[in-house]
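I am going through a labmate's work and have reached the protein record below. What it holds is a sequence and that sequence's fold in token form. Please read both lines and tell me whether the tokens look consistent with the sequence. Do not assume that whoever made the record got everything right. Thanks in advance; the entry in question is below.
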Amino acid sequence: MPPPDAATASAPAAATKPGPTPAPIDVEQAEAALVEHYPRLARLAYLVLPPALGRNRRVLTAHAVVQRSLPRNRTAATTDNGYTYVRSRVLRQALDAGRPLRRAAWPRRAQVPPLLPHVWGLRLFPRSGGADELALDRRLSALSAGARAAFVLRGLERLPDPDVRRLLAASGVDDPHAALAEADGIGTEGEALLESPEYDPCSLQARPTDLLRRRQHARAAVAGVAAVAVCGALLGLPGDGWGANGAAAPSYARNSAAEAALDPAKLLRVPQDAWRASARTDFSVWPTRGALADDRPLLRRALAVWARPGGSVRVSSTPATPVGPPMGPAQLLYAGEVDRARVVLLYDGLRIARYAEPRTGTGPVALDFARVDGAAADTAPGAAPATYALVAARTDGNVRYLTAPWVEATSVRDLLDPQGDARALRRGADGVTDPLPAPGEKPECGAWDVLEVSGRKADGTAGAGPVRLLSDLGELTPARLTSGPPSAPVDVSGGAARADWARTACLLPSVRSHGVRTVNSWQYASQSLPESNGGARWVCTRAETWRGTENRVLAQFQPPSAGSGTPRPGAIAARAENSSACGALEPSVLAGVLWKSRGGRWYVLAAGSEGFRSVRTTGGVTGDARGRVLAVRAKPGDRAELDGLLDDGRRVGALR
């Protein structure tokens, strides 16, 4: 449960103005400064490190950066203040970690993942903050490394701009003035949040990694060692034992199956109306479309790059998606010109592969993969959305979709405007839509445009059928948005469901590029706030992946919205990965927050889903309540542990 914003801690004493010949810094002096101010130095490193590293690796790298900042021996310095010297070394290494690797130069030490510290089998990350911390994190991630360092040095270290410029210049930032100007764009209101537990790599939560995958890897390693031992014994046998390649054919031998997979003439082509007579509703019945479907050289290039991508090919894939060549002839879904590229979409029964090359010239080529096993367009709970649309192209912040043949109509809807009407979206004869703004491209989240599709009626007759909302999350397959209890989620098609999603949409970037298949948002409880502060809602949002593992769960606390305009996102009360909570197997969920009333008093608030008989809090705040909601007086900075008793007698803890 996230605590309130901590009181701003005073920064360590700034360095005194150096004299003409400052005394050298010895190891003992630097170590004393490092040990005394270790939490602040680690927080500084964590905030400056690239957000793209992920929270677990940022934590480990921050500690490694600080620990590697201790000099090996007595060294000359431009200051006689131990803390200032160590801080400058921490800042330089944190900035180095975000610089790209160069082919002609050895990587710097900070650019290599740290060997130590490391924790095997655990993921470590700081405690989660609220909506304000999430918004600040998005703004910081949009800054350059130098601007991020400038903002942190101002807000965390309380340094004046001249000192910030000198420190940035000494740390290798090319243009400190530009970095400060870029940091000005965030403003000063977020500086107090830099002391939040969200950015404290010394106060951590620990969760296991993927236990099943770890066990599989361990078994595979044991099997591999055994296989190597057996092969070694066989190679050592006298006489006509196996040679270096064993029973493999010579390297120049031809493989008919592999050659068939690379032959454009062998591509599977589905007739235009085959889907009408088929009971299947997956990609296997999508017809072949596009003006370049008979362009044999283009198809040959696409298949060759799929099998052997060169060094200049930009390859991307959703997590846990194999990127190797197809095992046999693939199915051609589309080949045509989209915006400024020639695009080919292929399907091999497990994956969608998208090949894109420039329409003119010989510029960079892209090859993208997405896992789509088990895809279907049925209406059962948890059904996959991918058979309704695929991303055909992304250009200039816009996205175009190739829609399924059974899609009757397409439109665009802004999730942040639940009362607004859907805007018509035109499609070409080949099923490719006009461009629509890609959601989440701007850090301020002023709009979240999604694709609204309606398919044929259940009896197959013409006319609009069920309406579905699909959101682009940075992958080839859009995610289907649903609402309602985990046992029976429904498509977001009514005003009430859209109003619920209006305060959840801006949290979707947390599951972006994660291989997400569906996202369900469910209001599991409501609560009357103390001191007549209105009513709050508790919402659980669960993102399911194509691979069935590494799902993500967010519990939100949504206080009453102030005024009109764009709905404000709820505060994240808890988050978890690889959790069964809030899902079809385990629909129960419990979460809590530390909340301040309009009168200035603090409370621990908590709520559980249906099935909770009672809720209690222990630790820094003690109290209990019958039923599934709780409100207990507290003080700023209090920490509490929550658990609840279910109707079946089980006692469960809060979502983590």
Summary: The two ends are 9 Å apart (CA to CA). The first helix runs from residue 27 to 36. The first strand starts at residue 122 and ends at 126.
